[in-house]
Fold each of these.
Amino acid sequence: MNPDLSVDLCGIKLANPIVTASGTCGYGRELAQFYDLSVLGAFTVKSLTLEKRAGNPTPRIAECVSGLLNSIGIQSQGVNHFIEDELPFLRQQNVPVIVSIAGNYADDFPRIAEILEREEGISAIEINISCPNIETGCGFGTDPEMAGRIVRMVKAKTRIPVIAKLSPNVTDIRMIAQSVEKNGADAITMINTLMGMAIDIDTRRPKLGNVIGGLSGPAIKPVAIKMVWDVYQTVRIPIIGMGGVLTWEDVIEFILAGATAVGVGTVLFRDPWVVFDLIDGIRKYLTERGIGRLDEIRGKVVLPGKRD
Amino acid sequence: MTKDKREKSCLHITATVVKNTRLCSEHYSLTLKNDILANTTKPGQFVNLRIDGRDDLLLRRPFSVAMTRPAQSLFEIVYRVVGQGTRTMTGLSRGKKVDLIGPLGTGFHLPEESTNCLLVGGGVGVAPLWGLAAQLSKKKNRIVALLGFRSSDKVFGEDIFRKLRVETIVTTDDGSYGLKGFVSDHLGKVLNRPIDHAYVCGPNPMLKTILPMIRKAGIKGEVSLEERMGCGYGVCLSCVANIIEDGVVEKKRICTEGPVFDLEHVVLSDEP
């Protein structure tokens, strides 16, 4: 028996649920030197901005216990550079491409979307309204009204499916999820990093050049699982669940919490080849239990007092 | 099906520990066996080592390759024990396998004909200059090495340079071994000699004082930079440096466009 791992993400057919997380694999060339990107369910590019951005001062990264703190600050060559120099390469990789976009101002999002709308080979646009490392980044994603407004403006400029990437740095993530759904988002990616800080006790300096940053890695996985579960019960649009995936067991956990697809990010820094183990592991899990399709277990966490 | 596609995985190397010895109070030398790395790594390139059995450490640890012995399939890295990863590495014993990605980054460029070369290293930054000194001496370059350490218990590698018949000057900050002071205190004198090429590797405070001195003396050369690294293969954009390209300062990835850069092109933050 070969179980069906394919998933339908707002009309985009993914061969398997594994999606790269934005900002953890550039525009694909580096990973492609290790393996064919077509093994992935989808590839998400690093967030594009309208203009070139230098990013934050170094150090930009600090390892914590089971977590990673980063403050890259969206170093970007800008959307036009992406279209000219990177997109032609990605089009040839035989993998759905999700293009993440970020902005300094709310109006940047529809402007970038308008530019991308003219291009072939983009499966979805992911709007990064949750980056903790740029001045306004989190502001867009922590206010339900603003988050909804940006989704609506982007939807007005493009027919490409729009995915909203949500911040966990909020009181109730369900409010943001409902707002982006109501304003036309086709899917949700969650979660972005949790805001954090670390201090070197010898020098008394913050470990990041930007003082604060975003925490990723297995330390945040339980937070992500809980939030995916909350949002799964609240909205009807599909969720790309992510936050701290290291192993195939983590992928299954996200699916049981309600994720349609699952993102991998930080783990790729240590093991770019992990995606093979993830896919093999999911297949084995389903095979051993006689489950024919991954879809069958989505959201099927068995709660206390309920029968499975 | 997925297995076949994995075959494309070049750069993913399993090496075997041959020797793991203490060089001084905080530096260790790890000798590893792997035919590909021993034969393809250029001086200045690095490997990114996974700390086995430590799933909680999310990043690999990058180390420049200090020396290669292609005929024996051996290569050597030098590491300074600074945290949990490197502390765990001190337990690596003969026969153990280590998971590496490499060789990564750019290496040093050797002069086309034999010249007068200056090597300046500070602390663990001395290590990548070993292999470079070996290659330069094979090509009949005249070499002087200026090596700086904090104190006598942290000095390592001097014997290797001497064995290569490199004129070796050692400094310690506290004067407990060799000349007293920083390398910058003794560089001026060395720069009065005829030097054609300089190769530098060391901590940023050292680079901030000595790069302007070398440039002012009109000497061309290269510097290997260090910065907190995430992935080591170019995707995370953590380890960037300010590099002048066509008159414009650009953020370049030390792991990919570097770690070795033309010393004319490097702009260190708040450089005098």
Note: Chain A touches chain B through 43 residues (CB under 8 Å).
Amino acid sequence: MKFTRFLLKRLAFFLVTMWLVVTLTFVLIRCLPGSPFNSGKMVHPQILNNLNTKYGLDKPFYEQYLRYIKNLVKGDLGISMIYKNRSVASIIKRAFPVSLDLGVRALVLAAFVGLLLGLMSTLYSNKALDHIISVTIMIAVSMPGFVAGALFQYFLCYRLSVLIQSITGVRYSVFPNTGWEGFRSTVAPTMALAAGVMGMVAKMLRTSMKDVLDQNYIVMSRAKGLNKREVVLRHALKNALLPLLSISGPLVSSIIMGSFVIENIFSIPGLGRYFVSSVQDKDYTMVLGLAVFSVFIVVLINTITDILYAVVDPRVCIESKDRLKT
Amino acid sequence: MDTILKIKDFSLSCKGKKILDNINMSVSKGEILALVGESGSGKSMLARSILRLNNPGIFDTEGEIFFEDQDINSLTERQLTKIRGARIGMIFQEPLSYLNPVFKMAGQLTEPLKKHKKIKKSKAAELMEDLLRKLNINNPEQYMKSYPHQLSGGMAQRGVIAMTSSCEPELIIADEPTSSLDVIVQLSIIKLIKDLARLFGVAVIFITHDLQLAAKIADRVAVISKGRIVEEGDVQEVLKNPKSEETAQLLNACIVSGGRDTDKSVLDKSVLEGTGTNDRVKSVLEGTETNDQAQNLYEDNICADVKRKALLEIRDLKMHYKNGQNINRALEGVSLTVYEGETLGLLGESGCGKSTLSRIITRIQRPTSGEVLFDGKDIFTKSDYPKDVQMIFQDSTTSMNPQMRVEDIVAEGMDILCKKSRQERTRDVIESLERVGLDKNIKDRFPHQLSGGQRQRVGIARALITNPRILICDEPTSYLDTVSQKHMLDLFMKLKNEINLTYIFITHNIRILGNISDRIAVMHKGRIVEIGTKDEIEFNPIHPYTKMLINASITPKKIQ
Amino acid sequence: MLLYVKTAVFGVLKNKIAFAGAVIFFVIVMMAIAAPAFSPYNYHSHDADSIFLKPMSKGHWFGTDEFGRDLFVRVWQGARISLAIGILAAIIQMVIGTVYGAMAGLFGGLADEAMMRLADALYSIPDLILIVLVTLMMGNSCFSVVLALSMTGWTSTARVVRGQTLMLKEMDFVKAAKVMGASRRYIMFKHILPNCSGQILVSLMLNIPSAIFAESTLSFLGLGIRPPEASWGTMVNEGFKYTNITYHPWVVFLPLLFIAITMISLNILGDEFKKVLDSKH
């Protein structure tokens, strides 16, 4: 039916995107300056040849490409160039759950706070509270992740302990500023990561609500005798939430990019930190493997939300896409 | 007759500007009052003000609105919600945009019942289904399970009417409930409202810009113009003896072909009942062909007197759009000849293919098959065809680039076809503007600074600057109020006499065609079903579809 | 085109907050251009005696960093780099996006779908990762950073322009031009692009802060502009690495503050523009 066609199209798009990224990274491997084995030390040519053969670097371009794809599908993303006995996949296995944990917590917090703020802003529009919320949102959206990260680290981790010390005399850090052990260490990073995203959610909801409340069916619902709360929560909200799903892509992207930064500030052993350090170490296979994986996650989530959007909005599927007009 | 609603000295202003000025109006129990005015006269604002649906932050009000001796204008929002929907109901113009697209009909239609009468969801659904059945919706269960966009305009409006009357209000305000519907559906909805009023004793305020429509349904009429009530009284009285200038203008502008009064009300009963398309008529229409005989008859008669030249020949034009599995047949073998100097009216309802035809004739689109000849040559190979055939569009706001000044807009045709010096260009533009009755200073303004009527004239000036021989007018008056409409048609006549233009006039409104066209071609579902002279089509239509169209626009005596 | 922009600008400047944003941004740009010339201190002057001085001490308005370098000069030198990269990248994004989107919209049909699918695919890839990959390949100079940034941000402009083009294509005045025999190029340049100008401007205005955002994040991670040149992001990075923010927070927070202020004022301005443009339709 129409829906299955849509589904297939969307999945095809997913595969095309992944193919694009994969090919891009493969091309980059080839273009990178220097052979991976020349990082500083002088290597005996014989050993160099052996290593090249081992990694298949002497085979023609096309064959290497196929080998690469085949390995990817199997889940083999290669071996780190620096730490020769570690595979990229094993690093991902260790680091991804941490990043996932941080990301999910931040997303939930951001969604909750963002929606709440957006709703309050609508219900109390044009009153003082609305203006305060608008300003907060504006600031939250405009700051890069590391600003929030630095601020949260400084105030929650350091200043708070100083405060406690000055009151109780005991030196105690409530929210540690590094590591990912125990709930307390998750608080500051989660809040920092959620800050920017929360702004996006609130802003989107507010704009969306404003658009919806201008619509004719809202006038009709008022004419039926519904009060403001019923109008906003029943009629407007559902219509306003739909466009939110459409920004879920950028939202997830933001969280992933944000997590790179936050993990660095708070020394959290997640994907982001490994990514950054491997770039600095010029560990190319690691960089590319992590990049491919991260993109995979983002595109996967985008695909899922797109499909969800189609399920939720009755108009997207039933409407026939008439490309020519009568 | 008790007064149920009394508006006393009511004024509405926005940022200091007065939109409604000292309105005094009253409605009695069970009566139907028509509120008539041109677009922009303030009638919709007045309607919304009664229930205070305008944004109180922007609009300020003065005066009182007494509903059964209680001033509802001074109530709090909370108190007002008890009246809205329960004792005063409201119906709006376009049902599809006034219904929430993400809720099924069941959820939306039962809301007033659930809120005001505190009836449970399942019982309310039952009641609504009953009501829908009474309103001639054949399959209420299916209807309730549908989303608004799955229903047609007429069906949706019936549902809205059912919903509004479900709580048995004492007053219903209907704000142009039929303006966006086809003529035939319009009548059925009006009859519906009238029956409701009669059976349940509900008072109705019926808002429209069409005085004739008002005459069909209302007992009394109030005429509003520029935010003021200028006349009020029994509808037949006002129509016969309008006391104010504005009313007279409105009346004049309602162009009735001959002003006939047919006693033989041939309004098809089944059409009025609104059971979708009448099956009997439908089956007759499916198997029709172009009526060649009428065309030949015309040619014989006319060519006998004056040897007229055939300017545009359309031969067997077909236009098919592929849309996945379906093929949309917009045009199915249309053949037509347009003679020099005549005004050919192209009549049909929305979706009949007249717009497609105009697009092909102006080379915006290529047909699937068939050919069009101008002066004997194929238009798609002719080089300066735009010089000879030009077009005027329906919506003057979208037919002009908002970033361009009037001068550049009018000169565009000339700019594309040939290069002229600055002074020549300006001179030609001024000439064109004056020809359509506009002052030459308008050339430096932007479209949004002009009124609708002025913009439409600029469109005509633009089309005329290349001195075309054929002018295609695509519903040029449908977005204008009735007074401007009349001015526009006068202009067309004047131009026709001055420069011997040939017109192809496309519209769905037969009253207009009756006044200015020589011949009329009737289109339906991509075919020309009948062609004839103006009089033949109006007074002696042959094809059943033509008959239906003609009958739907007559002013009969009030529907009983 | 001018009419649109003129009315939009006047509309925006009426709003006090947007006006403030414009003023702030203007001041920052002016300072970036002029300020370093007026200070007695050199960008590179290490002064081991004056390390870690607090702001407002002894002629150092913003204090000094771990090498004794005057932070006032450094901040404004950094401003030059950050702003230059941001604005340049945004302009390139705007040009690429406009041309791509207009072409896709005008062609329509299959070509349009293919082009937009490509753009969408690019859009769904997280910017930072793409940028990092490109800088890996091309080095860390200002030029390659600008290039990398330009390659990713154009998709939103393209989408907006394409949407507008599709809508404008159906308008009667385009049809009228066709009836008059206008060529496709004429229609694109005379009718479509001028009516997109508002949206294009909004895009530009919102692309600048996101370019600054991307560049500063990149530099903060040590992957962008490297010393001795320093953009604001690089300064924050160095601050984090070589300074204990618990003792000398200003070294980190000063550049941070300016990044935040610049982005906030630009975002406010862009938002207001968007609001004004949308309300006119």
Note: Chain A touches chain B at residues 126, 215-217, 219-228, 230, 235, 238-239, 242, 313-315, 318-320, 322-324, 326 (CB under 8 Å).
